[in-house]
Amino acid sequence: MSFNEAFKAIADPTRRKILSLLRKGDLTAGEIASHFDMQKPSVSHHLKVLKQADLVQDRRDGQHIYYSLNTTVFQDLLRWFYDFVEKGERHDEE
């Protein structure tokens, strides 16, 4: 996982909304697209960016592809933020 790719992915409000939708459970691309006023290829592009950042995983079930959150990457990001804040606080005390 690249932090740069993850930060780039979550910088976009559409991708953040997709992540919020996936918090509730796995969805197909069509189910995700139904929440937006955009063409399906645009939704596919956003899903591709999220997959490249390892924030989203996909699995095939018959003819459907289901997308889900990769919570491990979110844990890594939170750990980075925590370390960043902690080191910053310790640095301020010195």
From TrEMBL:
PANTHER family the UniProt entry points to: TRANSCRIPTIONAL REGULATOR, ARSR FAMILY, TRANSCRIPTIONAL REPRESSOR SDPR
Keyword RNA-binding: no
A single GO molecular function term of this UniProt record: DNA binding
InterPro entries in UniProt: ArsR-like_HTH, HTH_ArsR_DNA-bd_dom, HTH_MetalResp_TranReg, SdpR-like_repress, WH-like_DNA-bd_sf, WH_DNA-bd_sf
CDD domains cross-referenced by the UniProt entry: HTH_ARSR
Keywords annotated in UniProt: DNA-binding, Transcription, Transcription regulation
Protein name: ArsR family transcriptional regulator
Domain named HTH arsR-type: residues: 1-89
PROSITE patterns cross-referenced by the UniProt entry: HTH_ARSR_2
Annotated Pfam families: HTH_5 (PF01022)
Transmembrane segments: none
Keyword Transcription carried by entry: yes
